[in-house]
Amino acid sequence: MRDIKKVVVLGANGTMGAGSAEVFAAGGCDVVLLARSVDRAQEGLTGAQNMAKSIRIADRMSCGTYDADLDKAVAEADLIFEALAEDLELKKQFFTRVDKLRRPDSLVGTVSSGLSITEMARGRSDTFRKNFLGIHLFNPPNVIVGTEVIPHAETDPQVLSAVVEMLQRRFGREVIVCRDMPAFAGNRVGFKVLNEVAQLAEKHGVAFADYLIGPYTGRAMPPLATVDLVGFDVHKAIVDNVHANTKDEAHSAFALPGYMAKLVAKGHLGNKTADKGGFYRRVKEGGKTSSLVVDPATGDYKPATPVAPIAFVEKMRQLHRVGCYADAMALFVKAEGDEAKLARKVILGYVSYGLNRVGEGEVVAQPRDVDRIMGFGFNWAPPSVLVDVIGAKETVKAIEAAGLPVPKVLSSLKPGEKLFRERGVNVGRFFSA
Question: Nearest-CA neighbor of 224 among 297, 268, 280?
């Protein structure tokens, strides 16, 4: 396991910069937070304190700027951790500087959520390429422990093993190793669902889409509320990247809806632009706070009104509350009506797409990798949990009925064999929302 004592975080004022700084400092590292100005770096330090819920976390932190402090900080660092904006050219510019300053044995990691690790390493020195890899923490990293590690072809295998062990044992991460493919595993699978629901909202409305594919389907938050939390800009960058660079069975699901592109152009990015909003916007009038929801057809915001209850959804929610998860999902696959068919297409599509990203030439090596990153990175019910709760045979029938490709791993399961194999994990945690 690598002995990491000093870490420098580039892009410290961003959410992931502050979050990664908190993770490394909490693990006993001395962390230098760098940004364009000391004030911006201080924003990152304050963010880390807020995440840690302790001002003492700052005892292991110091702030600086790229112009004044990058040279010394990088030269002394055991790990240079890049958390800049999701912009390939910007990252490459900084890595050119880092490559000239770092020690030959120092690690270099990027928190990129899906850009090419190979492309970032291109043209760098031999020791940079050997010690460079993706370390994709999920937001907020002080709460969400799921982590993707992404080597490229020239990453030293011993470095990869050491980083995985370090992240697991020292920093308490649940780690999976991904191939260097667009959006890696978690965002490839998760943002397919999020964007698919955003596409549904164009026809059916935001509130209805979030209700139909809501927490009762095994996720911590409604999908479009999740996009507001992540940010429209981040969402756009991820789905545009996948749509441009992959051609799989769900290619159309990654096409950003036109109304979202228009909102992004007007500066509507979700929670990070509270005054403008995203799918939702909260406003204060006369001392009262009310919630507005965007109309995809016009881009205007209107008062949020309750969605008319759907019988199978309400019954499933009741069953989940008393721990009858198998009964709830049995109802899900048998429910009649257009709403039920629509919900099954999305949720069974998630199972199909996630498990089809496993295997030779795909993003991960085994179903457990997808399960772990969706369960511990997104806090969603992993695909294998849904298979086990529904039943493998019944899942295959339902996937076929929805016109979706059946993953090979499901065809090879024996009667009664379980697919989800995480010890000590109660599947009820994924339906608690």
Answer: 280
8 Å CB contact between 328 and 316 = yes
Structure tokens that stand for 340 in this block: 């039920």
381 dihedral zone (left: phi>0; alpha: psi -120 to 50; beta): beta
pLDDT digits (tens, 9 = 90+) for 288-316: 888 999 999 999 999 988 999 999 999 99
Sign of the dihedral defined by the CA atoms of residues 110, 116, 120, 122, in that order: positive
Rg, C-alpha atoms of the chain: 22
pTM above 0.85, yes or no: yes
The continuous run of DSSP H or E covering 150 comes out as: strand 146-150
Both tokens of residue 33? 């937070």
Contacts of 63 (CB under 8 A, 6+ apart): 12, 32, 33, 34, 35, 38, 41, 42, 44, 45
Tabulate helix, strand, coil % of the chain (nearest 5): 50, 15, 35
Taking CA atoms, 64 is separated from 11, 26, 40, 244, in Å, by 11, 20, 9, 37
- Write the pLDDT tens digit of every residue in 178-190: 999 999 999 999 9
> Can you tell me the distance from the alpha carbon of 181 to that of 364, in angstroms, rounded to the nearest whole number?
10
Residues of the chain with CATH 3.40.50.720: 6-177
Beta bridge partners, 82, equal 10, 110
Q: The domain 6-177: what is its CATH number?
A: 3.40.50.720
Which residue's structure tokens are 């009762």?
Answer: 216
Looking at the chain, which residues constitute the CATH 1.10.1040 domain(s)?
Answer: 186-256+307-430
Cα distances (angstroms) measured from residue 334 to each of 274, 316, 343: 40, 12, 12
Architecture field, domain 186-256+307-430: Orthogonal Bundle (1.10)
Cα distance between residue 279 and residue 207, in whole Å: 9
Rounded distance between C-alpha atoms, residue 22 and residue 45, angstroms:
8
Cα separation, 220 vs 240, in Å, equals 25
